[in-house]
């Protein structure tokens, strides 16, 4: 894709866009929530649909001229239903956070009670953190992972639910490397007559490909992002049974959003079509295999993984046992200098701050899109380890950077 036309109008933005393309081409994107979409998805996202108001839903719009908007949204919905098998799917949420907002607004009253995983244990801001609207409008208590095992403490969650009697239990996480037992959480929700929202933002693609067990048909509501383990461009989705369809749709529009971003809905439609191809299942499985290979090699180097490994697309390294004087931010910064982009992350039982935590989170969706396999990911683990050992050694960082350059040349991304 060329930015020549942008350049004619706005060289400063063209410089930034080209800079970002070069950055993505020349670095290893290992932020677990990021991926690289196809040129087809990007083309759809930059289409004339950005001009179109289409408030409402296919066939029931508040504006004229919506025939093509209807076509695109219906395609996105139909493909999403094929991917995830839900009765009803709303593809309009602008993001995963907006999807969660849609569920809360759809079925909760202000002051109702949310029970969700603590942010420092892998939860998400939109699950009721005080800095997010959900923490301001609803009452929130949080459950935790077992700090010994790193797994969700399902028993503790169940007991907590019986004491707290929440209106909704939120499952699905941001920094949790293990498969989630949605059925077990549903048991707790049933025991206290609470709704269950399964937020599969991170594993949307793994669930679509059948690589992870699906909460669809188990939880009352399933929300997701469309740009993490599935490559359909930035956005969110909500899935539910038909009985909740009207409440959810009304909570998205007009409850919390205006006109849908139809160009992004077009991107979702294209990305969902790509995910229905047989190759996507192989991609999702490879993403997991790569994360397992990455994690195993980091362990061989003596690093400590939360939960001792991974079932999904990410690993969470607790630096404290092996490198007590090194923080996640030290490692994040040095790795970025070497061209490996991941993020510092809190770990269960965090003893530092959320801003300068004790862990790093590394994901494989982006590397897998580039074509990396297990051997490549083992080598990436070696490179990460070299930097963890010597984050302030410029020679080590430069050497790792040279190998990253070779790897990115070997696996090109965007033209
Ligand atoms: C579990 C979870 N839910 C929701 C979100 C929010 O997604 P978005 O950034 O699209 O709003 C994230 C983002 O990483 C997440 O990890």
Please give a structural write-up.
By secondary structure, the protein is α/β, with parallel strands linked by helices. Helices cover 46% and strands 13% of the residues. It has a seven-stranded mixed sheet, sandwiched between helices. The protein has a four-stranded antiparallel sheet with strand order 11-12-15-14. The longest helix is centred in the C-terminal third of the chain and has 23 residues, at 278-300. The protein starts with a helix and ends in a 5-residue tail after the last helix. The mean pLDDT is 97. It binds pyridoxal-5'-phosphate.
Give me some keywords for this one.
alpha/beta; 16 helices; 415 residues; binds pyridoxal-5'-phosphate; Aspartate Aminotransferase, domain 2; Aspartate Aminotransferase, domain 1; Ser_HO-MeTrfase; 15 strands; 7-stranded mixed beta sheet; 2 domains; 13% strand
List the helices and strands and how they pair.
Layout: H1 4-9, H2 11-26, E1 28-29, H3 39-45, E2 56-57, E3 60-61, H4 67-84, E4 88-90, H5 96-107, E5 113-117, H6 133-137, E6 139-143, H7 154-164, E7 168-171, H8 182-191, E8 195-199, H9 204-208, E9 221-225, E10 236-240, H10 245-256, H11 262-276, H12 278-300, E11 304-305, E12 314-318, H13 328-338, E13 340-341, E14 343-345, E15 359-363, H14 365-370, H15 374-389, H16 394-410
Parallel strand pairs: 1-13, 5-6, 5-7, 7-8, 8-9
Antiparallel strand pairs: 2-3, 4-10, 9-10, 11-12, 12-15, 14-15
Helix pairs in contact: 3-11, 4-11, 5-10, 7-8, 12-15, 13-16, 15-16
Pyridoxal-5'-phosphate is lined by residues 33, 95-97, 124, 126, 172-174, 199, 201-202, 225, 236.
